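## Example record

The block below lists the input lines for one assembly entry, exactly as stored, with component labels intact.
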Amino acid sequence: MTRNIMSTLSFEIHPFQSYSSSSFQIENPKPNLLNSSSKESTVDIIHAKVIKNGTIQHLHVGNYLLNLYVKSQNLGYAQELFDEFSDRDVQSWTILIAGFNRIGSSKMALDLFTKMQKESISPNKFTFSSVLKCCASVNDLRMGKAIHGLITRDGIILDVVLVNSILDFYVKCGAFNYAEKLFELMTEKDTVSWNIIIGAYLQIGDMQKALSLFRWLPVKDVASWNTIIDGHMRNGLESNALDLLYQIVEIGPVFNEATFTIALVLVSSLSILELGKQIHGRVLRIGIHNDGFVRDSIIDMYCKCGQMEKASVIFQSLPQDFVRHNSKISWDESVVGSISCSVMVAGYVLNGRLEEALKVFGTMVREQFEVDKFTLTTIVSACANVGLLELGQQIHGHLLKIGHKVDVFLGSSMIDMYAKCGRLDDAWSIFRQTNVRNIVLWTSMISSCALHGQGREAIRLFELMQNEGITPNEVSFVGVLTACTHAGLVKEGHKYFKLMKEVYGIKPGVEHLTCMVDLLGRAGRLDEIKDFIYENAISHLTAVWSAFLSSCRVHKNIEMARWVSEKLLELEPFEAGAYVLLSNTCATNHRWDEAAKLRGLMQEKGVKKHPGQSWIQLKNRVHTFVMGDRSHPQEAEIYSYLDNLIGKLKEIGYSTDVNLVMQDVEEEQKEVLVSFHSEKLAIAYGLICTSHGTPIRVMKNLRVCTDCHNFIKTCENAVEEALGVN
DNA sequence: TTAGGGTTAG
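Predicted structure tokens for the full assembly:
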């Protein structure tokens, strides 16, 4: 039976509560769409009746009932019923085997098949078809071959349907030679046979062969079209897939559910919202919007096109019944399944709405939905983005406990999560434990080293990865270039930039170009940046000028800063960053009047700067602070603690760095302003609330300022406890 | 025979 991960999950998602003007608020979700009703299902009623009138004693009635439970994916009851049978025929076994296979419990199904043989029940062609499907889904080529042998040995009549299922099995297990041979030997072939073999060519990426067979195929059914469109999409040929989709509209058969699903996935990957809406409209007109596949694809399409409100409306409008694997489910097909929830979680994460993602996830846990590795991957990624180390660790522990294999997706997001939460060692340990490593997993580890300033290590990994025959992609280059930047490895940076363009043929994107500007800028080579910008014809890129400006500030070059910010503001007159950076540069150079002018200009134009925020998670609450925040219930205690702490730190050499305060105010007042930066408030609160030796992790939406950086450093020097502050 | 959800940068 499919294992419901949550049945062994020990953690609970507690409601978070946050104070102050937080953008990160996780409340106890209101179960508005989650009032699961436990209405008695139709199968149960039938069950009760046949028991009462005694017809359950008849095998065919029992099998009929068994089939009803299986069809409603109610395998627990199906198994119970099956166990109660005094007599079982091949049909009883086959129904149950197929049922377990359908819900993804291929192992259970195969065990049943073994038991059935032990009881000397001869399988029929339906049994064989089902068992072959199981072999395909657990990728057991050997077992499948043995079944193939059994079919031949037992003299089962090889009708085209059965041969097709053998053919399909070989294709799914990647045994193309067997499939090709079998296909050649087939005396009778139907469209299904052709569809399977076309699918095989698509699977190995032989587009020409697949397309020529498809063109030649005299009778193309909707599955032929679905196969060829989907195959193009999976091979990264989205525009060809779109052409084919238009062709099926013109000359092909009527769409079925699969066509709509494929079309919606295509639309999502191309982000063509308008077409997606049209498809949605057609789905509604035809009335197949309650099909699970179609519905989830529609929700996903809106998520991927950034239309979370629309996605949420559809999600919330679904009937208030829930499908949970292995539990009683409604007969009504239009129920929210765990995949719908999973899609919503992923959508919220994708669109940066992490608190909402966690809300849906919390509901899934509470309502005992099946939380599979898809959902967990997304949640771990959400943890990475907000620094929820505890939840990430709990998921990790849970995976260990249930012995769940960490695949490349989960592995990558866990590496990222640990690294972003300041635990590079744990990121390494995940990396070392993985036996299958794809480009994303490698890149996660490379970027993690880069994030922690371990440039040389990142480069070593990058080289190791290449030696293993993995081709770096554009993200890997962002990682290695960032590593060079953070470690001041200018020469290496140039080397990899060249490698990317010339050896791997990757066109530098904004991220790579910005990295290069940053690399030169940190090394103080401001003049070289100018050359770089003009050589690469990238003077139209805002991000590049922002990086340049930030370098000007670091190197206190006010003339250059003025010139750069002019360029930047020409491109982006409402970009707060330019004003802030330039005025900070002016302030650093004590040009108060200029700084004030810029502030005035900002106000005049209505340019708003993102307020700096810091938050800390203590127990199950997230406490958020902004500069000079007085909204926290314990504000008096926080301020007096901080005041006291700063006093003590000053005794051992800390002095407030007021250069970053852009206002022209008295020195004393400047000191007050930097003293109440949000991160200091969060740290103070963390120190108040935790016992000696507890690491303190503070998350921020902006970069830490120099003064806070020094403040933390002095804290670390002063106190022996390692304050694991990010 | 065909179809849905997940990872890395920014």
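The domain at 33-367 of chain A is CATH 1.25.40 (Serine Threonine Protein Phosphatase 5, Tetratricopeptide repeat). The first helix of chain A runs from residue 42 to 52.
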